[in-house]
Amino acid sequence: MNKCGTQAPVWLSLKSESLPAPGEIKRLTGCATWQVFGGTRDCCLFRIPIAVRNCGAFFVYLLQPTPGCMGYCAEDKSTSLALQPVIAPELVQGRVHLKCSYSPAAPEVPAQFRVLWSRLSSPGKREQIHQETTLQSFSYVEMDGANLRLGDTVFCTVTAFRRGTPEQQSLPEDSKGFYAGIKFLPESLEIAEDGKEHVLTVLSTVPIACPGQDDSCKMTLQLSTEDLGRQVPGPPDIALSACQVDLLPEPCSGSSCAAATVTVTAVMDFAQDGNRVSSIRAHPDAPRDLLWRDYTPRDVKVTVRDLPTGNCYSFTDPHIITFDGWRYDSHKIGTFLLCRSESRAFEVHVRQWDCGGHRSATACNCGVAAREGGDTVVLDTCNGHFQDSRPQLTIKSTETSPQVKILKSYGGRKITVSQELAPTTFKEDWNGVGSCKVAASTRQSLKNCKLRSQKTFFEASISSIKFRLDALPQATGRERIVFPSGAFVRADLSEWGMGVTVRTPGRDFNSTRGLCGLFDGTAHNDLNNVPEEDFIEEWRIPPGKSLFDKTPAPSERKQRKSFCRCQKGSTKPVPMVDTKNAFQTPSPELSGCHDDHVDHSFAIPYLDVTSEFVTHTVTGPTLRKDAEPLPKTFGQRYFSKSVQKRRSPEVPLKPLPHVSMNSNSSINSTKLTGDLRKAKRQDKYFKYSSFHPLHGPAQRHSESFAYFFPEDYFEGDRMKFPLSWPTPNGLTVTKAQEICHQILANSTIGLACKGLLAKHLDEAIDICLLDLQLKDDVAWVSALIALLENECERRVLGSRKGEFPVGNQPSASWEEILAALRCPALCSGRGRCTELGCWCHGGHGSYDCSSAKSE
Questions:
Q1: Strand-pair category, 375-380 with 497-504
Q2: Which CATH superfamily is domain 182-305 in?
Q3: Is the backbone peptide bond immediately before 107 cis, with ω within 30 degrees of 0?
Q4: pTM
Q5: Chain centroid to CA 480: how far?
Q6: E strand or H helix at 673, and its extent?
Q7: Spans of biased composition, class Polar residues (predicted)?
Q8: Per-residue model confidence as pLDDT tens digits over 335-380
Q9: Torsion angles phi and psi, residue 452, rounded to 5
């Protein structure tokens, strides 16, 4: 009393009133009396109107101005009893209740407690739902679904006072807010397209009531994902390990009364779509408890950081374009490391042989070998003679079941190694009905496959891949090797060898080594700032050490999870563009949730032919009956079991068209004027090198070699001559530019994809000029069409959500670009372009309808 120099204490009179509830304002009366000259017995000599607001953790008082020169001095007289109220859920007679517990006052001080229950009605504002005065150190309130519902954030505020003197109260103490319902932990995620898995916990903060106490007591939650932030809804950028979880009752501990986990990963979509936000939502599935009906839990936001996709090219003699876009030439022969990931088991090796340059020694890719995890794929034309060797494809696996897939496009000219894809059903209407299901075993599934076309009925009961490809619409051609990570290796086959394309996902960003560079977003450091010759030599692989000759030891490989998009409102994926069936991708009904976290869409149609090549690694040499190893000799071909049986996949290789020059310098892109030189590569090799058979592997070491590749033992310098215009055949730089522009820029793919290709089209023309100057033969130019096709497809897949990088706006309509990719040369005007490739008119065949049936 009389603190800080005052003479009249002021106190709140609560005889007929109580303090306001949290968030509430009340007008109360303050009493005051003078305490000088002996004072007075009237404790409320004069009254002061006071407005009091309860702000939860504190009160705000609005006092009237004092008369004259008087003023107020305030001092906190209330005491805190450290009640520390806490809310916990409990089941009471099968009904969900919330219990507010608090520490009682000192036992020698008899006290009562006023408990006020409230819930958050809007940010920063509470709504009172229940109040009681009790002698107990706890208070209950039932979650009845009306006054208190799931999804509410609940508080209890406790005030203690002496019995008989309710006006003398402690300061009110609030509990922490208790969220009643389903929660995700963490409440938000930030992940990247790097293949990493993230565990998300789904828990219930209230008990799961079990009417009837049967054994099936659980709460099933359906999980769904949704893409946020796009004007046009699209597939979410995340995938889940399951689309539903079961919450089983368990004793409440902390904030959890039932919990389950689900794994979240980013979808590697190989699209340049920036950082995206998706949501995960849980919905109770047909709950029996009325409390759970019409309840929608809070969703969790997942931000996915976009990572770049790496594409590396090695074409013609060969010209290498690294993941980051640096271009250089590799004229060396031998076996080299094209790409290796430092963060996982993934690597690609190439073999380069002499391919007969007219003016100087040149090198071309004759084989590629790729490995991911326990799967190794070898596509090889090196075990033969230049222009006289058919491709041999072998799959070797240390896994129980290989996960790699072989896809053919354009009649076998494109081979892509891919991950395990689900069965795909091709349906197309050609003046009737056609349906053909291509499942895991292509040979068996195509038996009795029926196609009706142009009133002619075909029944395919076939046994070789060659006839199968002819029986189907021309949806096949080049071949690609696709791995579970989304990485693929594509080979574009030609008479001289192959162009190689490697795609690696964002998880390999900043962790690659080899001829394809560092993949760190910076092009100028790809060669490690050393001369090209030294850089190439750094990645040479010694004889017998490459994937062509040996299978790596099994690596530790964790069990693969299946992932689902769990897309909200539909079991089918939303089309990525407005064009119907724009990309060939596994059917969701058939593929289920196999590998939905990797987008395996392709714009170039394909046919899965993996079953023709699958074999398992032979752990030792073949034994005779007397258990002695069979001898091996140099030059003997060793293939996997399936390849030994087939000798080579039936890939009809059509001769490349030659472009000739006549006296008036006109360009003819269809007339054949001659063949590429068919010199035996072994003879030519000895002519240009100092190789001697004694330099080869000893007989006793030949066990580790699939076959003898003499380029691995080359010693000395290969012939190089200064290049200049005109060439010995009279080709001038002006004429060469005209040829390159006509064949590349004016091609179907060049015209349709000009806007998307941008500088890459100019780069292809530069490569074309170098090839013409080096080889003095226009027959090599057409091989660069495949480079444009692959780069155009990469751009299309990267922009398929309708967002194009600055400077890469399409010059043709989306439908025209897709048609150019599906149907080479637009079927040469002799067929109809379908979603699965060219459907040739009568009398014509091949993947581009360019051949007459008689051919």
A1: unpaired
A2: Immunoglobulins (2.60.40.10)
A3: no
A4: 0.73
A5: 19
A6: none
A7: 660-670
A8: 999 999 999 999 999 999 988 766 677 899 999 999 999 999 999 9
A9: -115, 125
Nearest to 264 by CA among 170, 346, 189, 331: 189
Give dist(CA 609, CA 440) in Å, integer.
9
Nearest of 258, 254, 193 to residue 221 by alpha carbon: 258
**Taking the domain 86-179, which CATH number applies?**
2.60.40.10
Range(s) of the chain covered by CATH 2.60.40.10: 86-179, 182-305
Dist. CA 723–CA 524, nearest whole Å: 26
pLDDT 10s digits, 646-698? 233 333 333 323 333 333 333 332 222 233 333 334 444 333 333 333 345 55
Query: Residues 546, 376: contact at Cβ < 8 Å?
Result: no
Cβ neighbour number for residue 756 with a 10 Å cutoff: 24
Rounded to whole angstroms, what are the CA distances from 269 to 134, 239, 280, 576? Answer: 61, 11, 19, 11
* 689 closest CA partner among 454, 353, 403: 353
C-alpha–C-alpha distance, residues 389 and 386, integer Å: 7
State the pLDDT at residue 190: 97
Helices (H) and strands (E) in the chain, counts: 12, 47
> Does residue 699 sit in helix, strand or coil?
helix
Chain Cα centroid distance, residue 529: 32
Tokens of 45: 């000599």
Cα–Cα distance for residue pair 493/478, rounded to 1 Å: 7
Tokens of 36: 């000088």
Rounded to whole angstroms, how far apart are CA atoms 402 and 420?
Answer: 8
Q: What are phi and psi of 595, to 5 degrees?
A: -140, 60
Instruction: Give pairs for 458-467: CB < 8 Å, separation 24+.
Output: 460/436, 464/650, 465/609, 465/612, 465/649, 465/650, 466/650, 466/652
CB 523 within 8 A of CB 305: no
Contacts 24+ apart (CB under 8 A), 661-668: 661/730, 661/731, 661/735, 661/739, 661/778, 665/735, 665/738, 667/738, 667/739, 667/742
The β-bridge partners of 623 are 629
Average pLDDT, the chain: 77
Angle between helix 783-798 and 814-822 (nearest 10)? 140
Residues 307, 312, 313: CA angle, nearest 5 degrees: 155
Condensed to tens digits (0 to 9), the pLDDT of residues 686-732 reads 333 333 333 455 544 555 677 889 999 987 777 777 888 999 889 99
Residue 439: count other Cβ atoms within 10 Å of its Cβ. 15
- Which of 797, 798, 782 shows the shortest CA–CA distance to 750? 782
Beta strands in 267-362 (DSSP E): 276-284, 300-305, 310-315, 319-321, 327-329, 334-341, 346-354
Sort 535 into a burial class: Cβ within 10 Å, 0-12 / 13-18 / 19+.
middle
Handedness of CA 75, 80, 86, 87 (dihedral sign): negative
Note the pLDDT of residue 804: 59
Token pair for 699: 């007989």
HSE on the CB side for 789, CA within 13 Å?
31
Helix (H, G, I), strand (E, B) or coil at 775: helix
**Tokens matching residue 519:** 């993949």
Kindly state the tokens that stand for 353: 């042989």
- The tokens describing 783, both together, are 């091989």
Pairwise CA distance, residues 290 & 296, whole Å = 13
Helix axes 733-740, 759-775, angle to 10 degrees: 130
Q: Which of 227, 171, 143, 140 shows the shortest CA–CA distance to 22? A: 171
Q: Is the Cβ–Cβ distance between 96 and 207 less than 8 Å?
A: yes
Amino acid at 564: C
- CB distance 792 to 749 below 8 Å: yes
Residue 726: asked if its preceding bond is cis (omega within 30°), the reply is yes
Joined together, the tokens standing for residue 433 give: 């009905």
| Predicted confidence (pLDDT) per residue in 244-292, tens digit | 999 999 999 988 999 999 999 999 989 888 899 999 999 998 787 888 9
With tokens 């089918």, the residue in question is: 572
Q: Is 762 helix (H, G, I), strand (E, B) or coil?
A: helix
- DSSP designation for 151: T
